[in-house]
Every structure is written in C-alpha cells, then in structure tokens.
Amino acid sequence: MSVMRTVMETVARVMPAKEPDPLLDKSGGYLGQPLRRVDGHAKVTGQARFTADVALDHLAHAVLVHSTIAKGRIVRIDASAAERAPGFIALISHENAPKLKAPHLINVMNTRTGFAASDLPTMQDDVVHWDGQAVAVVVAETLEQAEHAASLVHVEYEADTPKVSFEELKATAVVSDEIFGEPAEVTVGDAEKALAQAEVAIDRVYRTPWENHNAIELHATVAAWNDDDTVTVFDSTQFINGYKHLLAEVFNLTPTNVRVLAGFVGGGFGGKAAFWTNTVLCAAAAKIVKRPVKLVLSREGVYRIVGGRSLTEQRVQLGATKDGQFTALIHTGLTVTPAHARYAEQCTFPPRHLYAAENIFVGQKIVDLDVVANTWMRAPGESVGGYALESAIDELAYELNVDPIELRRRNEPKKDPTKGTEFSSRHLLEAYDQGAERFGWAKRDPRPRSQRDGKWLIGQGVATAYYPVYRFPATVRLRLSADGAVLVQAVANEIGGGTATVQIQQVADRMGVPIDNVRFQYGDSDLPDSSIAAGGSSQTGSIAAALQATVEKVHRQLLSLASANSESPLAKAKYDQIEARDAGLFLKDDRSKGQTYEAILRAAGQDAIEIEAAAAQPMETMQYSMASYGAQFCEVRVNEVSGEVRVARWLGSFDCGRILNPKTAISQFRGGIIMGIGMALSEETVFDERRGRIVNRSLAEYHVPVNLDIPDIQVIYTNIPDEHAPLGARGVGEIGITGVAAAVANAVFHATGKRVRDLPITLDKLLM
Ligand code: MOS
Questions:
Q1: Phi and psi at residue 167, to the nearest 5°
Q2: Mean pLDDT by 10-residue block, N- to C-terminus, for the chain (768 residues)?
Q3: Other CB atoms closer than 10 Å to residue 591's CB: what's the count?
Q4: What ligand 1 atom has the least distance to the C-alpha of 535?
Q5: Which of 147, 331, 372, 591, by CA, is between 20 and 30 Å from 518?
Q6: Residue 442 CA: distances (Å) to CA of 169, 438, 445, 651
Q7: What is the DSSP string of 27-69?
Q8: What is the pLDDT of residue 2?
C-alpha cells in the first residue's frame, strides 16, 4: 500500500499544471448564492420518500434478535413459542441462513467497491463476537407481529470471558499497520530529545469516550429478489455503489444484478458509509421467505450492530522556547479496533499538519476488544484528536503567559510540517483574525476565573478546526436536450448536506442556462458511478470535478457539431475561444457571435446529446497539503454551585476555500458545531467493562444537544478560492465539529480555573 502511495506521489509531483477552471472564482452566477435546497419542499411536506417509507406489495417485516453475551457460542435457539405467534413467517439463524461470503474491509487504494465495517461472515456459524450481534432474524406479516415473535425467541449460549476492558488491555496495544494509507507513526527530527531540552514543556493525557451514532433516520433496508435472481435493495446507505458491490460479493452475484437505491438519507454522519450486517440480513431474509422484506433497526438495534466512535486515550507533550516557539510536539494515541475490523480512529492526524515544530513524533496504537466494529463518525479522528491537541496548546499558552491565538501565530508553518509539501491554500490566521475581531476576543481578561455574573463564572475559549480534503474518482452523465433542459446523473446521494442543490448551481453556471432547466438525478446504483457518495466531506468536490470534465466534453462535442455547418458563427471557433452563456456557446472576444444549444442541435438534426465523463485522478491531495481550516470561538457560563455548563455564544470562522452556497454551507458548519457541543458536554456511550454491553442504548439516556443547549451560532468564512480544489471549494461537512470540544474545554478552564481532560465535561467533573 505504501509503495503504491509513493508511486502516486511521485507521479503527482511531475504532473503538468492543469488549466485553470474559468468557474474557479467567477462571480455573478448561481454559485456563491444562498439558494434554497431543491429538495427542501419535498422534505418539509413529507413527500420525500426515505427507505422506511418504501411500500411494496406483499411486504414482510423483519426484526433482529441480539446476542446477550459478548463472546461464546450459541448452543440452542428455541423458536417454538415464536413459531406459534400470530403472523410468524420465518426465523433465520446460522442453522438455516443462505450461504453468505464474508465482505471485504476497507482498502484505501480501492474504495470503489465499498467496504464492510467487519469482515466476519454474517450468520454462518454459532460464534458470538460481541454483545448485541444479531443471532436470529424473525420475519412476520407486520412489524408488531415480528417484534412480538422475536421477543419469544429463546437463545441458549455457552459464554466465554470476553476481552472488553480497555483499561485492562491497553498495555497490549499494537501499532496499527496504517491509517487510511498513512503510516501510523511519523517522526521528524528527535522530539524526545528536544522535549527534554525544552525551556518550557507540558505533558498531558486526554480521554474521550465511546460515542454512538444517532442519525434521526434509523438504519433501514427493503430488499426484494426478482425471478431472475437479481435483487433490488432500498437502503439508508451513504455509499450506494459500495453496497451494490458488497451485496454482490456476499450473495455471489455479478454487481450488475444488484440494484441499490437511496433517494434520501436522514442523516449519516459516517454511520452509514461502511457496510453493516442489517443490510445483509434483510436481503437474506427476503431470499428465504421469497417475499420483499423490510428491516428497520430499532434505536437500540443501531447501538448493537452499528459501531460508533472509538474511545481514545491521547498523550500530548509540547516543548517550547520561552517566547513560545515549539521545539517538540509529541502526540500519541490509543484507540480500539477489533480484530474483525480495519479502521483506526485517526486521532493523530491534526498534529501532522498544524504546527511548525522542528521535532515531531506522532503515533497510534490500537487495542483489540470483543466489540462491534468501530467506525467513522463526523470528522472521525480529527474531532477527538483536535480536542487533545488544541487543549494542550491552550495549556501551554497559559504556561507561557501568551495569548492562545498569538501562540498559534508564532507556530504557523510555511510548509506542511510532516509531509513537507506546500499548502494548496491556507488562511487559518486570517480566519483567526476575522473571528477575533467579530467575537471581541481582545476584550477578554486572560486570567482564569476573572469574570462572573452572580453565581455564573464566565470564560472564553478558542481552538483550531482542521479537516483534510479528500476527493474520489467520479463519473457523471449529462444529457442536453434541444429544448435547453439539462439532466445530470450520478449515483451520488443526499444525506442532508445540500449536494443536489450545489451541483445544480454548478451545472447552470457551467452550461450558462437558467437553474430551472437543470435536474440532478441521483441515489440509484444504475446511474454512473461516483464512488463513495457521501463520506470524508468529499462528495461535492468529487462530483464537481467530474462535471467539469463532462461539460467540457459536451462543449467540445457541440463545437464539432457546429463546425460541420459552415454558416455557423462557431464554425471555426476553438474550444478555448468560446464561453457558455444564454443557453449556448459564444465567442469570448465577440460576444454577439455564437449559437444557442437549441440552434446547434437543431442544425445538426439532433434532439439531444448525452455525454459521460470521469474526473482526473485526485493527484492534488498528494501534491499539496490540503485541508479545511477554522477557528472556533466560544463563551461559556459555568454555574459555580452546580457545575452546570451553558454555552452562551459561538462564532465559527472558517477557511474552506470558496463557499458555493452560503445557506447550505452555513447549515453544515452549524450542524457540526452543534454535534461538537454534544461531544464537549454530553455525548457518552456508557460501556459496561465487565460484560461488554452498552448500557445507555436510547436517546433518553444518551444525550445529544437539544435546542435549549445551543446558542445562536454565528458563522463567518474567508471565502478565498483554493485553486487546486474543484470550484475552489474544500469540504464543509465535517470541519464544523472539529475544534469545538477543545474550545469549550478551554473556555471552561478560563471560566473556572479547572482543566477537564476527559470528555464529556459533565457537571460532576466541575464540582470543586
Ligand atoms: Mo463522514 S464521518 O466521512 O461520513
């Protein structure tokens, strides 16, 4: 894997510079406008159809039976009572499940075929690997009947002692092979030596808890087998084509015989990107009962068979000169990855790219436990890694008696400190300056516990937000009709971010047509493959790059049609002499000369043209250090008597390249910040370290923020286009959550003088 990467990096370095995109910083079009979501009306009026809404004739309902032990064997499944229950159709277990192959884990060099969270075969033997694993599926005529019958299934186990205590097993941690194609350990200079010699040093350990996914839409599947042994699967997945390939792999089908549909997804956050057993079990149940089957997990079911964020234990050591130049940065972390999974929560990614320390060591180890596979959750490692790193920076700032923004300014790197490459575009300090100005940072008394309002202690905190740029290969198809209608098709999906809206804005600008002429069709694996639909904040850029290539091909094709007609004002025009506007192509240097698309197509006797094209390989992310950045500012009020923390003010100041649609982008930033406030103050999976069971498997006991927890959130952004990113835009979906927990912890310290180094910052940790 690393050899491949070296080859690609070498290729990337010698790549010729590409043509600048005329749309990169063009103003006056639809891009940059705060347009409403094209799917907003359908969503608020209830017309948008989500997976659980899919109604098919003769549909049966499935409910899972979960293991109550974390390790061992199933000795006996007694279904006799369930079989007598009304509406019962079938019980599927390892004793009668169809033969299912094990799905493959993530391979960063090839993500096109998707990736399973775990490579255990589903329901093929009697072995239990974690508490909550599905041990049987009950199918009945109605959901209620399936739930009732499932409650009557009695399973006997032979239990082994599970490995479930992180505390007991962390000494057995091993360095992970790689983390998303990056080495688990990176060394620059000699950080240990520099730390020992540093004028000022800090050494701190930070902990973050397990967290679970709580998208409003539960993981849902409707599977229907057809007579010719093809299968149609509606699923709440973030990765439509990945699921197509994985279902084909598991059921031993050719991928073209599997169709996966996900028109709307009610939140994903990473929890619907990897392939989970619910989708396999629904399709297997439908095969056995020879009817379409719907399987919607219960909220508890999501906790039991879908993984979440690994807990982390991170140590940050910083060495600096008295005037605050970093001489050593050491950031190490432990996370959990069970043996049947391959994903190490990348909590040590931020320190690889943020500060100009001469000596750096970052390293990650993983601990194997008998738990459900861990997975991605909005800015997976960057959010928890940033909490540790950005808390430590704040701690050092107090140690040095330097303003925390000033400390960051003194250590802003000119090049990527571990990769050695240039930044594609980095205006983090401008984001800090603009944020500080708007927030009124200069008015803050820097002394801890210096501000109060009655019983409320008041503090302000700041932290850096960081999330890397990912782009994946994508293909799109564009159909231009003589009446001026433009249809764009890509397998892509809409998990709530505004993808469809932004792509339509882009197409209208590139084609020079009114936005109402453009339709974007997505959410269906029969459409052109756009790789991972929604993950790594990559979808907008990945599709944008493919659309740029496709529209260029469309325009070249139209020019060649025009050149066949000597009367055409475009007959001799070259591609670089034309521009698209007024629903046609016109000469750049003589704006009166050109033809509408309609005229070109009619003259050529064509009703439409249809072109499919792929984007160039995403070399830019290897050539440059590419990331979205931001500065999070917050004010908290801490009740001196009860320890209660209220977030009173928030300002996020972001540097994510060009903002394509302020309305949808700001909504993404705000959503990320809200999720970050949850990480800071309330989210925590309570895990029983004796039995390996998640205790708080419901929204009643797992606390995400509600409206009253969230103040008005202000968002500003630099809006400086990144010339190396499609449309000048870097991702905005995940950056919002990063830096939030650290900003809160730093503000809590400023308010109270008490540093909390383990999340969430609940009131018990603040009672003096
Ligand atoms: Mo995101 S955690 O890559 O869906």
A1: -55, -45
A2: 50 57 82 95 94 97 98 98 98 98 92 94 98 98 98 98 97 94 96 98 98 98 96 97 97 98 94 98 98 98 98 98 98 98 96 97 98 97 98 98 98 97 98 98 97 98 98 95 95 90 96 97 92 82 95 97 92 94 95 95 96 93 96 98 97 98 98 98 96 96 97 97 96 97 98 98 92
A3: 11
A4: 3
A5: 591
A6: 46, 10, 8, 15
A7: -SSSTTS-PPPTTHHHHHTT-S--GGG---TT-EEEEEEE-SS
A8: 46
Does the beta carbon of 271 sit less than 6 angstroms from any atom of ligand 1? no
pTM exceeds cut of 0.90: yes
Sign of CA dihedral 195, 196, 202, 206: positive
**What's the gap in Å between 397 CA and the centre of ligand 1?**
32
If one counts every other C-beta atom within 10 angstroms of the C-beta of residue 449, the result is 17
Query: Which amino acid would we find at residue 385?
Result: G
Please give the angle made by the CA atoms of 168, 174 and 176, to the nearest 5 degrees. Answer: 135
Residues 6+ apart with CB under 8 A from 731: 467, 469, 470, 536, 537, 538, 540, 541, 628, 656
Tell me which DSSP letter residue 625 carries.
B
- 609 DSSP β-pair partners: 480
Q: With a 6 A CB cut-off, is 381 part of the ligand 1 pocket?
A: no
What is the residue type of 515? I
Tell the residue number behind the tokens 């231009």, with chain if given: 480
What are the angstrom distances between the C-alpha of 474 and each of 152, 265, 400, 498?
48, 20, 48, 18
Q: Could you report the per-residue pLDDT of 379-396, keeping only the tens digit for each?
A: 999 999 999 999 999 999
CA 77/CA 150 separation, integer angstroms: 12
- 728 ligand 1 Cβ < 6 A: no
Q: Is the CB of 535 under 6 A from ligand 1?
A: yes
- For residue 677, give the amino acid letter: I
Cα–Cα distance measured from residue 215 to residue 217, given in angstroms and rounded to the nearest whole number: 5
In 3D space, the residue among 180, 176, 188, 175 whose CA is nearest the CA of residue 353 turns out to be 188
HSE (side-chain half, CA atoms, 13 Å) at 236: 30
Asked if 300 is an active-site residue, the reply is no
Joined tokens for residue 300: 């508890």
Counting ligand 1 atoms within 8 A of each CB, the residue from 180, 345, 346, 734 with the most, and so the one to mutate, is 734
For 711-742, the pLDDT digits (tens) are 999 999 999 999 999 999 999 999 999 999 99
